[in-house]
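ESCALATION

Customer reports they have been waiting on this structure for their group meeting. Please prioritize. Original submission:
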Amino acid sequence: MAVVISLKLVFGHTVTAQLRSTSTSTSSSLRTIVVMAAGTARLAAPTLLSLLGLCVLSGTACAQTFTTRSIGQSNPLAGTSNTITVTIQTDVNLAQADSSVITISGLNNAPDAASLALASVENSMANMLFWEGTTQGEGALSSGTLTLTLFTGKTVLAGTQYAFSFTITNPSAAQDAPTVTIAASGTAFIAPTSMVAPDSPLLGVVKGSKPLLVMLPEFQVRKIGQSNPLEGGSNTITVTIQSNVNLAQSHGSVVTIVGLTNAPDTSSLALTSVENHGANLFSDGTTQGMGSLSSGTLTLKVHQNQTVMAGVQYAFSFTILNPITAQDASTVTIEASGTAEFLYDRGAMSTDKADLNGVTNGGKPITVVSK
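Update from on-call: job pushed to the front of the queue and completed.
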């Protein structure tokens, strides 16, 4: 196989290079290149190949690849806005003149977008390299594959690092992180190769920085029980929780417990720590270790500089006076907002010890029986 390439040098001379492969095997990833130059200048093979944007190692053409191919995300939570950042570098030019296209595949369940805006990262202007056929700075996302077509006159230059991001809405259901690959065609063919993603936790989610790993926020532990079912009596209610994501005060996080039917209202309800300083996590908006109880709903604002940490079990209690009229237990649910929105239909609380002192369901808040 022979390819004839002409280069117009700055001093007006034309150098003609003939590239011959010394191997006829199409399966070989490394092939020695022989270069012959004519004219005033004599250029060594590595120099000439570098001018052409070809990968060269000690005079040998090497397999074309993405030498940098990293990808990460900003948010692993279901149904939320998620910015995905991509950093790439090739060892070969990819030019629009050769109809070059880069594809990123494996973005499982990302919503389709015929025109997906790209944003430059670190002033690399990488977003302006691409278009979706209509608008510069955009790509096309379909069936989990992002297609990036080189814009008119643009070239991804070998050895130059580019970074860009795009924002999607995460799927509404939980999923494991998919294997994301990157490939290219046009000036060079680069076979699909796995991208490199961080293993770091994000918002308390293990490996949450991996793109399209999606977690459905919930309290994995959500228990509640009471000490006294007798009407008019003092009743200590104990709550045990464990979240699968962080809930930070910096995000305005609030935990609410709903269904404490006929519990007396109080704007400042004292909390007592039972496990892992659970009471200290919350406030009534002013005072640490307090909550506010209104119309059967206990509101717990995450206190200043506090975070309900994912994977940590906390317990706290509070004491109320029972209603003076007998009643059955209600379904008590727990919800959260702020760092994450916890779905109501996944928040029903359970009671370890349903029967208490011979009273059926006497341990379930707020069951009240006559004395």
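Sent to customer with the following note: Residues 66-194 form a domain with the Immunoglobulin-like fold (CATH 2.60.40.1170).
Escalation resolved.
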